[in-house]
Structure formats: C-alpha cells, structure tokens
UniProtKB/TrEMBL annotation:
<dbReference type="InterPro" id="IPR015505">
    <property type="entry name" value="Coronin"/>
</dbReference>
<protein>
    <recommendedName>
        <fullName>WD_REPEATS_REGION domain-containing protein</fullName>
    </recommendedName>
</protein>
<dbReference type="InterPro" id="IPR015943">
    <property type="entry name" value="WD40/YVTN_repeat-like_dom_sf"/>
</dbReference>
Length: 175
C-alpha cells in the first residue's frame, strides 16, 4: 500500500498481508531484514520513516478505528506507542514533513485533518482542522514551498464535495 525511503537506504513497504517489511537496498538484500505485523484492519495503511531506525504507521484496527503506531526497528515485537485516532471509513491520507516533524492525517470521505507532532519517539496531537464538506482527496505541498517567515507548518489543496473545487488551506505555528 505504501513505500518510504530512509536516509540510510532502507525501504519500508506496507503491504496487503498486514505486515511491514524493511529492505536494506543499499546492501543488496533481496529478503526483508525486518518483517513484522502492524495493523490488523482490512483497509489500506501507510508507513513512513521518521529517522533511520523508527517508522510510523497509520492504519486501522480490527474494530475499524484509525490508529497511529510508532515502531523501533531494533525491537519490533510491539510498537513504542499506539494511538487510536477516530472512527474513519475512508482510506488513509497521510503527510509527514521531515523538517518540522508534523504529521497530517485524514481519510477519503472525512471532513477533518488531525495534526500531530512527532518528538522523541512520541506523538502528540496539536490541532485539528474541520471542514463542512467531506474531502474527496488532498494534495500536500512540498515543505520547501512553505512560507517559513510566517511560521507555516503545512499547506494542502483539498478536493471536496459537492463543489469539487480546489481549496488552499494553511496552518501556522503558535508563537
């Protein structure tokens, strides 16, 4: 369902078999160096490297609630932290800005975006954006195009129903 590269040449693969596979591509490994079960829900899920030995995954539990998990690849028996987010029925839309360590989570058909801050192998919710209309899809701008002078932490273009128009939204850091 998703691929993510680390800075040291590892590839994280979130697949249909509900397991996270880590490949060491720089060393030419053809089999995963780490293989572990993650989210047990049947919907697609995402994984992203936050540093060379830590992966954050976003998926669904058995009861259908969206959950975020932080994994230490040196000890992959259980997550460092697992956070239940909300009941969501659409597939996960996730964006992570490495420079400021903010995660933005939503789903197709949701009308909100949850904002999390990653710090020292822990996630804290710092805000939420609500819209009167459910999103059809979201596209995030690359971090280098954010306005750092105004302390902007993220910007997305939202495609929503019923108008199916593109809307620009921004968020700013608290001073």
């Amino acid at each position: 369902y998703s691929l993510s590269w680390s800075n040291n040449g590892r590839l994280a693969v979130a697949s249909r078999d509900k397991r996270l596979a880590i490949f060491d591509v720089d060393r030419g490994e053809k089999k995963p160096v780490v293989l572990m079960p993650c989210h047990q829900g049947s919907k697609p899920w995402r994984a992203v490297f936050v540093d060379d030995s830590t992966v954050v995954t976003v998926g669904f539990g058995l009861e259908g609630s969206k959950e975020v998990a932080i994994w230490d690849l040196t000890n992959s028996s259980s997550p460092l932290e697992r956070i239940r987010c909300n009941q969501s029925y659409g597939s996960v839309i996730m964006n992570y800005y490495r420079g400021n360590r903010f995660f933005f989570l939503s789903g197709r058909g949701d009308n909100g975006i949850q904002v999390y801050k990653y710090n020292n192998r822990s996630m804290n919710i710092v805000g939420q954006f609500q819209s009167p209309h459910p999103f059809r899809d979201i596209c995030w701008m690359p971090q280098e195009y954010l306005d750092s002078n105004s302390h902007e932490i993220g910007r997305c273009f939202r495609l929503f129903l019923p108008d199916t128009s593109v809307v620009l939204s921004t968020g700013s850091r608290r001073r």
